[in-house]
Amino acid sequence: MILSYEDSQLFYRLFYSLLNYTNERCQIVPNAAPLVIGTPPDGSRILPLANHIWSHRDIIDDFLADNPNLPADEASIVRNWKHGLQGSFLIERVLKKGAIMVHLETSQFYQVIGLTTEWEEMFPYFPVMMRTTLLPFRDRITYAVTIEMNRVTFGGGIKKSLREQYMEAKRNGAIHTTLDGGDSSLYNPT
Asked: What is the CA radius of gyration of the chain?
């Protein structure tokens, strides 16, 4: 599952605005032209800017203060990015409602939708290990444009263990579908 065209355009407009603001303010990537929607994402520019934001999340407050005319719903989306979850993840499987990822640092499971490309188009097999930042977007979870791949192949024993962990998380309603932190963020299989 991916964001609708309208939602993906909104996501990129807000995210690129935050990245451009960060670069203008902090000069993380000196002399770089602003990121523009419709051009292929440039990880060499996006990644250092995004990493700066995740390690200095107060810049999100600064961005919002310097953009007081941002509509309330859009400001809420950006404000909620302060709850993003950075780290190493493993996509255990892909369902119609999104990829099932496990955060390797906490062993928590998350249901994550793609931005503009289906997960199966990006990866030829699962499980796959990556480093990224999960971001709340409205009532779902997506990711912060860039994915750093970790080329690891998993054997049958690991795959079986991951399947069992997923099934247990599903049975216990322990798959997060939002990053708001409340009980509403957990998938209820019934």
From this structure: 17
Burial class of residue 154 (count of CB atoms within 10 Å of its CB; 0-12, 13-18, 19+): middle
Distances (CA, A) of 83 to 37, 60, 86: 24, 11, 10
Distance CA 117, CA 120 (A): 8
Which pLDDT score is estimated for 89? 96
C-alpha dihedral, 111 to 116 to 120 to 126, nearest 10°? -50
Q: What share of the chain has pLDDT > 70, as a percent?
A: 95
Specify the residue for token string 């997060």.
176
| End-to-end Cα distance, the chain | 21
Region of 43 please: left (phi>0), alpha (psi -120 to 50) or beta: alpha
Q: Inform me whether the pLDDT recorded for 115 exceeds 80.
A: yes
In the chain, where the domains are located: 5-82, 83-185
The fraction of the chain above a pLDDT of 90, given in percent, is 77
Tell me the H-state helices in the chain: 5-26, 43-55, 58-65, 72-80, 119-122, 156-171
The residue ranking higher by pLDDT, 177 or 153, is: 177
Q: Which two tokens stand for residue 2?
A: 């991916």
What type of residue sits at position 187? Y
Task: Give the CATH fold of the 83-185 domain.
Answer: OB fold (Dihydrolipoamide Acetyltransferase, E2P) (2.40.50)
